[in-house]
Amino acid sequence: MTKSTLTQSSLWGKLGAVWGVLGLTLLLGWAVYRVFPFAEEAARLPWHWYESAFFVFWMVFMIYGEGFKGFQKGFSPRVVARAAHLSKHPVWWHVLLAPLYCMGYIHATKRRRIVAISVTTGIIVLIVAVHWLPQPWRGIVDMGVVAGLIYGVVAMWVFAIHALVGREINHPTDIPAQPV
Q: What interhelical angle do 3-43 and 76-88 show, nearest 10?
């Protein structure tokens, strides 16, 4: 491989990595933007004691379960690890679809693709179910979702910054094994 091809390949890889992380940031930010008004509306309503108790429980559950366990310990480092892999091994269509690549929908092990599709399906089912909840319940649920998603975006960018300054992201990429 010539130096110019290597440089061009590296440039495409870096663009793919940036697009992957930025694209997911935009996707998660769009989700926050979509549910925030319902959370804000619920915050303006008077609550009964049991709604307040559920709010406390739900926020702790979502920050720990979605934010810490789901994003910080799983999704975010995997996204950045896959983005780093893409930066070193760019394929034009992986670069083009980098957010999907980083999420594990394409060029991933069968198990990773099944998990990605299953989680997405579960999220869609929950979105539909929560849509039918009355206020303030819908807003309370959405407050937890907003907190978890913001935690996740921040975690993803912390891992991305670590990768940019040269720290190794020691998380499995779930890239399929190359045929021998």
A: 160
Q: Name the residue among 161, 157, 144 with its Cα closest to residue 31.
A: 144
State both tokens at 163: 């990768």
Write out pLDDT tens, residues 44-93.
Answer: 999 999 999 999 999 999 999 999 999 999 999 999 999 999 999 999 99
Distances (CA, A) of 56 to 62, 127, 176: 10, 21, 41
pTM > 0.85: yes or no: yes
End-to-end CA distance of the chain, in Å? 21
The answer to whether 37 touches 146, Cβ cutoff 8 Å, is no
Residue from 153, 148, 152, 143 nearest 37 by CA: 143
Provide φ and ψ at 47, rounded to 5°.
-115, 150
HSE toward the beta carbon, residue 145, CA cutoff 13 A: 24
**pLDDT per position as a tens digit, 140-160:** 999 999 999 999 999 999 999
